[in-house]
Amino acid sequence: MTTSKKDLFSAAQVALAEFAGALAHPARIAIIGFLQSRGEASCGEIVAALPLAQPTVSQHLQSLNRVGLLHVRPEGARVSYSINCEALRDFCHSFQCTLGTGDAAEPANRSAQAMAEAI
Amino acid sequence: MTTSKKDLFSAAQVALAEFAGALAHPARIAIIGFLQSRGEASCGEIVAALPLAQPTVSQHLQSLNRVGLLHVRPEGARVSYSINCEALRDFCHSFQCTLGTGDAAEPANRSAQAMAEAI
DNA sequence: ATCGTATATCGCCAATATACGATTTTAGAT
DNA sequence: ATCTAAAATCGTATATTGGCGATATACGAT
Predict the structure, then answer these.
(1) A interface toward B at CB cutoff 8 Å?
(2) Can you give the pLDDT of all 119 residues of chain A as single tens digits?
(3) Interface contact flag, B119 A29, Cβ < 8 Å
(4) CA-to-CA separations, B109 to A68, B86, B115, in angstroms, rounded
(5) Does some domain include residue B2?
(6) pLDDT tens digits, residue range B61-83?
(7) Cα dihedral across residues B57, B59, B69, A118: positive or negative
(8) Which of the residues A44, A63, A96, B29 has the least number of beta carbons within 10 Å of its own beta carbon?
């Protein structure tokens, strides 16, 4: 990319792309699945469950958190992570409703509204 | 990345990540939105609508097509593209139903089943 | 066969993402 | 204050992605 062209697209389009980008790695899918099955987990517990080093997992958690996909609850030195289901649902909704497939519920927050405008 | 770790994750996880990756660029979100509003369009018409060169748009179309997001219909030299709504709906479903948010319909094809298994 | 138009592919470079060892930061325990 | 454990950040190596000019390919028309 000679020059980054992200500024040539709308903020809503960029936001939606960034959300999708947060899901665009098998490790992050695995983290979401692990958190889903566990309800919540610390970084260390996720490291133990995945074939990746601690800094790498921490990095992936930041990627997910940056787009609002996680609930983060510090418990002393330990940090408890869990899924923000709302954000995930709203992301899906922004695709479904604008594509007229009809079976999604109403969006629940602001970022979903922005995303829906993107497409 | 010293060594690619994609082989350390399940095929379903990789598939889901690749699908998300296809949505992870503002230009591809814009293409989806354009196709949605138009119903169908040729590569050239998309090029005219976006601030990108023809090879770049063609490349993005390949990215979307690789994960099954497009219907491709050649009409002589021209190629007509449109959205595979089914694929997009199934992608969203695989997140929604496994997260237990409940408001998604049943998946309609095989790739959705694979995706649902990922998480 | 040649031309004109539409699309895809190639080749190269710039930019971004991924991975992780080493280090720092944070917080509880002693 | 010091020790320990957990998590985040830094630095750096490597891999992947994005952009586009040049070129190749496909196809209808002449």
Answers:
(1) 5-6, 8-10, 13-14, 16-18, 20-30, 32-33, 36, 51-52, 83, 85, 88-89, 91-93, 95-96, 98-101, 103-105, 118-119
(2) 444 555 689 998 999 999 999 999 999 999 999 999 999 999 999 999 999 999 999 999 999 999 999 999 999 999 999 999 888 888 877 766 555 444 444 445 555 555 566 66
(3) yes
(4) 30, 8, 10
(5) no
(6) 999 999 999 999 999 999 999 99
(7) negative
(8) A44
- B30 domain residue, yes or no: yes
CB distance A99 to A116 below 8 Å? no
Domain span at residue A69 reads 10-118
Can you give the CATH number for the domain in which A87 is found? Answer: 1.10.10.10
| Strand D nucleotides where any atom sits below 7 Å of a protein CB | 5-11, 13-22, 26-28
